[in-house]
C-alpha cells in the first residue's frame, strides 16, 4: 500500500459509548468516503444544518477537549482521539455520523478506533495525497507554555514535554516521527487527570462521563486504576495523541517539526491559525509517485498547488 495515495475505510465501523464531558450515551458510525471528501462529521440527531467540518478555523472551544462548530452553532466535541487515529493511519476521507454532540471517549485513548479501522481494512484510491509543507518557523508563547512549528525535510516530528508538580507524573518528554515511529504506545495512551481536580471539573459540567474505565486518575503518588500504566510515558504520549488529532484539523498531512512544552488543544490551535494567517508560512503540495518510498516524501515529485 502506498503512503502517497488518499485512503478511506473498506467497511463501516459502528461504535457506542459515553461522552467524557457530557456523560451522555452516544453512537457513531464511520463510513467510507470518496477521495477529496476529507473528514466530515454529521449530527444525525439533527435534521438540518448538521454537517460539521474539522477545520482549524472551526474550533469553537479548546478547553479540556477540541470542539468544532459550523455556522449554525452545531458542534461536535472531543474529536481529538478519533482524529489522531485517522491522522496516524493515513485515513484522508471519512464520514462520521454521530447522534449526539460529543464523540465517545471509549477507553480514553485511540486504541479501539485504531483496532476497528485496521480490522475493517483501509481502501486506497488512485488519487494522490496533498501535504502541507511548513516554510518558516512560527511560535507561540503563553507564560510557561510554548509551541513552535518549523520546516522539516521529510517528516512530521512531534517533540512534546509536560511538567506537573505531581511527583508521579513529574516531567515527561517524548519525540516521535509520525511517518516512521511505531505509534502503538501513542494510540494506547489514555487521558488522565489528578484526583483533586475531579470535583472542580464536574462542578463546571466537565468529566461527567469520566471513570476509571476511560481515564487514568492520579492521587498523589498512586494510580487509582487497576490497569495501572500501559507504557512508561503514557502521560506525555497521550498529549502527543491529542496533538496529532489537533494537527489534522489542518486538513492534510504535514512536513514539519513541532515542539511543545506544557501545551494543549488551545495552544496548538493558536499556532495553526498563526501559520495559516500568512501564506508565506506554508505551501500545499501534491505528491505524485508510483513507488512506495522509505519515508513519506523520499524520491517523490512535488508539485506546488497553493
Give your account of this protein's structure.
- The chain is of the alpha+beta class and 306 residues long.
- The protein folds into 2 domains: 5-128, 2-Layer Sandwich (Ribosomal Protein S5, domain 2); 131-304, lpxc deacetylase, domain 2 (lpxc deacetylase, domain 1, 2-Layer Sandwich), CATH 3.30.1700.
- The chain is built from 6 helices and 21 strands.
- The protein has helices at residues 80-89, 111-120, 184-188, 198-203, 234-247, 265-276; strands at residues 5-9, 13-18, 25-32, 39-43, 51-52, 59-61, 67-69, 75-77, 94-98, 122-128, 130-134, 138-142, 145-150, 156-163, 171-177, 192-194, 216-219, 222-223, 253-261, 282-288, 301-304.
- Average pLDDT across residues? 93
Over all CA atoms, what is the radius of gyration? 19 Å
Instruction: Tell me the number of strands.
Output: 21
CATH-defined superfamily of the largest domain: lpxc deacetylase, domain 2
Distance between the termini: 27 Å
Number of helices: 6
CATH topology of the largest domain, which one?
A: lpxc deacetylase, domain 1
Helix content percent band: 10-25%
Order of helices and strands: EEEEEEEEHEHEEEEEEHEHEEHEHEE
The main sheet comes to: 8 strands, mixed
Number of domains: 2
What fraction of the residues are assigned to beta strands by DSSP? 25-35%
CATH architecture field of the largest domain: 2-Layer Sandwich
Amino acid at each position: 500500500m502506498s503512503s502517497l495515495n488518499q485512503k478511506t475505510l473498506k467497511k463501516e465501523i459502528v461504535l457506542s459509548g459515553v461522552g467524557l464531558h457530557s456523560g451522555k450515551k452516544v453512537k457513531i458510525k464511520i463510513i467510507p468516503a470518496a477521495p477529496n471528501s476529507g473528514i466530515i462529521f454529521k449530527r444525525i440527531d439533527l435534521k438540518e444544518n448538521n454537517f460539521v467540518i474539522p477545520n482549524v478555523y472551526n474550533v469553537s472551544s479548546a478547553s479540556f477537549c477540541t470542539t468544532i462548530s459550523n455556522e449554525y452553532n452545531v458542534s461536535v466535541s472531543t474529536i481529538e482521539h478519533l482524529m489522531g487515529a485517522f491522522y496516524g493511519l493515513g485515513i484522508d476521507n471519512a464520514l462520521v455520523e454521530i447522534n449526539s454532540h460529543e464523540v465517545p471517549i471509549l477507553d480514553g485513548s485511540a486504541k479501539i478506533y485504531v483496532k476497528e479501522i485496521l480490522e475493517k481494512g483501509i481502501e486506497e484510491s488512485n488519487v494522490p495525497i496533498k501535504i502541507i509543507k511548513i516554510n518558516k518557523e512560527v511560535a507561540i508563547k503563553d507564560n510557561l507554555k510554548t509551541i513552535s512549528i518549523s520546516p522539516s525535510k521529510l517528516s512530521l516530528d512531534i517533540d512534546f514535554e509536560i511538567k506537573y508538580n505531581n511527583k508521579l507524573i513529574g516531567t515527561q518528554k517524548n519525540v516521535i516521527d509520525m511517518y516512521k515511529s511505531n505509534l502503538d504506545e501513542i494510540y494506547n495512551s489514555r487521558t488522565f487527570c489528578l484526583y483533586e481536580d475531579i470535583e472542580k471539573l464536574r462542578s463546571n459540567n466537565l468529566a461527567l462521563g469520566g471513570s476509571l474505565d476511560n481515564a487514568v486518575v492520579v492521587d498523589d503518588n498512586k494510580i487509582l486504576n487497576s490497569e495501572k500504566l500501559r507504557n512508561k510515558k503514557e502521560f506525555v504520549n497521550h498529549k502527543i495523541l491529542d496533538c496529532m488529532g489537533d494537527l489534522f484539523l489542518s486538513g492534510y498531512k504535514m512536513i514539519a517539526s513541532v515542539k511543545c512544552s506544557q501545551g494543549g488543544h488551545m495552544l496548538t490551535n493558536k499556532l495553526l491559525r498563526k501559520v495559516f494567517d500568512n501564506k508565506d508560512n506554508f505551501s500545499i503540495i501534491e505528491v505524485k509517485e508510483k513507488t512506495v518510498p522509505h519515508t513519506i516524501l523520499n524520491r517523490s515529485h512535488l508539485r506546488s498547488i497553493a
